[in-house]
Amino acid sequence: MKQKIEFTGIIKQNGSMNAAFVEFPFSTEELFGKKGQVKVKATFDDKIEYRGSLAKMKSDCHILGLTQDIRKQLGKTFGDEVSVRLTEDKEERTVDIADDIALVFNENPDAKKLFDAMSYTHRKEYIRWIEEAKKSETRENRKIKMIEMILSGKKGV
User: Is the pLDDT of residue 24 over 90?
Assistant: First the structure.
């Protein structure tokens, strides 16, 4: 059975950036047998689900990021308390690729190979960047630009 871990944390600001995190108050080594990054599925305040990682970022303990979008959905900001329930995420992280993007990859097998070798986060970033385009011409331009960026060795947008 998957171990469910629950705790309450204070949303902290990362330096002066508009980035937030909560500290993970347990030992990842004891719970997961890992010192480094731990992929997790988290639920904030029993309503917002998130797939991310517990990471050690020049901090004494591991931290879990809260995106701007999650904070907005929760109606919370820095200094607010949030309840967190999480389990280790052992599922493969896949990115859904729309048909028109898949076609561009079919025409550029070298770029597809490089794309597939990227981390889940970088693949997700590229696809989201294309899908956020409001106009079809912007979407077309971004698909071309993505192939160029991947072939030039750029890991993310």
Answer: yes
pLDDT in tens, 5-23: 999 999 999 888 888 999 9
Directed axis angle between helix 136-151 and helix 99-107, to 10°?
40
> What is the rounded distance in angstroms from the CA atom of residue 140 to the CA atom of residue 30?
48
pLDDT tens for each residue of 50-89: 988 999 877 778 999 998 889 999 999 999 999 999 999 9
Neighbours of 140 (CB within 10 A): 14
Strand-pair category, 48-55 with 12-13: unpaired
Q: What are residue 54's DSSP bridge partners? A: 38, 64
Asked whether the beta carbons of 54 and 60 are under 8 A apart, the reply is no
Instruction: State how far the Cα of 82 lies from the Cα of 88, in Å rounded to an integer.
Output: 19
Residues 6+ apart with CB under 8 A from 14: 20, 21
Q: What is the CB-side half-sphere exposure of residue 84 using CA atoms within 13 A?
A: 30
Tokens of 5: 């871990």
